[in-house]
Amino acid sequence: MSISINNLKVEFSAKCLFDNISYIINRKDKIALVGKNGAGKSTMLKIIAGLQKPTSGSVATPHDTTIGYLPQHMTISDTATVIEEVRTAFSHIHEMHARLDRMSNELASRTDYESTEYQDLIESMTALTDRIAMEESENCEAEMEKTLMGLGFVREDFNRPTSEFSGGWRMRIELAKLLLTRPDVLLLDEPTNHLDIESIQWLENFLTTKANAVVLVSHDRAFIDNVTNRTIEISLGKIYDYSVNYSKYVVLRQERLEQQMRAFQNQQKMIKETEDFIERFRYKATKSVQVQSRIKQLAKIDRIEVDEVDTSHLNLKFPPAPRSGDYPVIADNVGKAYGLHQVFDNATFTIKRGEKVAFVGKNGEGKSTLVKCIMGEIPFTGNLKIGHNVKIGYFAQNQAQLLDEEISVFDTIDRVAVGDIRTKIRDILGAFMFGGEASDKKVKVLSGGEKTRLAMIRLLLEPVNLLILDEPTNHLDMKTKDILKNAIKEFDGTVIVVSHDREFLDGLVEKVYEFGGGKVKECLGGIYEFLEKKKLASLSELERSTTPTEKPSAKKSEQKPSDGPNTQTQTRKLSYAEQREHEKIVRKAKKKMDEAESEVSRLEQEVADIESIISTGSFPSDIYDRHAATTKQLENAMSLWELATLEYEEINSTK
């Protein structure tokens, strides 16, 4: 199976989106489709899916090849329960049975036994019979349950009407249906926008281990890095095809642009020299042959075109934060329930001034709810104290949707700006890539990313010292996300980020609060340290859960007579394998503990060195900041070492 895209050309008005593009999608390709906003990534997916026709060219799809397409936005209007809706994913089995019946009837009516068509029909019937047998041998109900739970649903959700769920959860239902059909080619447009970290990791695993060919558009760098093995960039109507994942593509692309620029500069130099020669000797009869030769040479040159590099620069900088109290947020046994449903309870934690923390966990576990409690938007139980002189800047998950769509970009900012800032609105909009005519556009014609940027500008209009950002990266492209991340890093106030974007959180936050099972757990360290600890914790839990089952099985084998000479050998091999696996887990836990201990020792020495410099009385002006930062790192490292030690002792004691 391979899909062939041949000489594809797409034109909108006078603009050429694609210009004679050709490439092939092979059976096991995992392709990331990349390019700047408006390059035509979503259009490309629609054309491959057969939902849009190109201006010229074709997409050759082999007979019986199935294609599954998940658009970025869709309108869903089903009325069934979750499980009933997902069960429709297996309707294709009934269709395959109907096709097999039609083939069987055709075969019975034919007498051209020696013909190629007759043999082709038999082969098609055999292949279809094998496919039906394979799909029916799988437990459909178990697959549905596994897929729905992987995407964040719980069993209690299965029999709820789909109409009770938000748009994001309805998209998950559609994604579950799509994955269960196991199409030959999966086309996914921003599939992670409505998923949490755990669901994204599950989807990564599914796509890498179970999916066939995949073509995806995503601004989640970690996701496409983990899933794809090929990157196709769309730029200036052309494509550049790289047989590597996104991170390696970025390096190769930079090399290509540098080579392209050198070739362009060399060609421009040669053209200039040729034009100068023609101009200098145009009217000299003795040079007329050479001049004509150079004119022809110039006409034949295939001009090198430099790929468009986005030179617009987004200078995103939050205003200096007014000094707040030492503890902007103190939560003591905070809880929130809706009727009989307890979202979370007994949440107790303290966020210090200047800390940058992340709220993570499955959707519906209370991340945005706790943010609303901090904002004072909803009632709650327990005590929640906002510190002295805390000024909150809040970016809500639906902030972009709250904009007035009927007014212009300029008016959106003009209506909230006060004082001297009103004289600088055009400058601010220009810095956010709304310069010139773009500032006069109506909000309703903006893309999702542009609306998010516009909502972010509103947040910058007054100085705050506690930033609360609820899913700020949805609809932002990779470049804008990097700029926002750097701005938050440089912000000297306190930050709470609710996000499922691991790449965005990596290196940004120093503490993670996990929401799940009605609890809020604090985890010191960055996002990948948190995920690693979760993995270790689940390993030790698995170790604990498998250990008790070994004794009854051993007992059973003692009571039951041997079925053959190899039974005891097999039992010994199994216990040996289990023992080796346990030793492997213990070694990994010990290595983790030793590394954590080394980091503590290193930081203790660093703190001692800084204190030694301070004691001399002659030191640089930033020495106290360095001392505070290193002491905080040491505290985090101590916590990680304690956790690693506990995990090692717990795993080592399980025999």
Automatic annotation (TrEMBL):
Checking SUPFAM superfamilies in the record gives: P-loop containing nucleoside triphosphate hydrolases
Which InterPro entries does the annotation name?
AAA+_ATPase, ABC_tran_Xtn, ABC_transporter-like_ATP-bd, ABC_transporter-like_CS, ABCF_ATPase, P-loop_NTPase, Val-tRNA_synth_C_sf
In which organism is this protein found?
A: Duncaniella freteri
Start and end residues of each ABC transporter domain: 3-261, 329-542
Q: What is this protein called?
A: Probable ATP-binding protein YbiT
Named from the GO MF annotations, one term is: ATP hydrolysis activity
Q: Which stretches does the entry tag as region Disordered? A: 541-580
Known PANTHER family for this protein?
ABC TRANSPORTER ATP-BINDING SUBUNIT, DRUG RESISTANCE ABC TRANSPORTER,ATP-BINDING PROTEIN
What Pfam family does this protein match (any one)?
Answer: ABC_tran_Xtn
Which family does this protein fall into? Belongs to the ABC transporter superfamily. ABCF family. YbiT subfamily.
Q: Does the keyword Nucleus apply?
A: no
Composition bias of kind Basic and acidic residues appears in 552-561
What the entry lists under CDD domains is as follows: ABCF_EF-3 (cd03221)
PROSITE patterns attached to this UniProt entry: ABC_TRANSPORTER_1 (PS00211), ABC_TRANSPORTER_2 (PS50893)
